[in-house]
Design a protein that fits this description.
This protein is mainly beta and 57 residues long. It has one helix at residues 2-9, and strands spanning 12-19, 22-33, 37-40, 47-49, 53-56. It has a five-stranded antiparallel beta sheet.
Amino acid sequence: MKLQLAIHGNLTVEVKYFKGHDFHEVRGKLLSVNNDRLMFDNEDRTRVRFSDVMMCL
């Protein structure tokens, strides 16, 4: 629900996720949300799998 609101309202979100044996954080606006990934509108066009997400703020 939060992700839908964020993408439609052009809101900034912060996601904490686990990847490569470590925890990471990414903050930004979402470009897209599909069945298994989030894509952020940042310099790296960060992609995060839903299965790796620990927390979404």
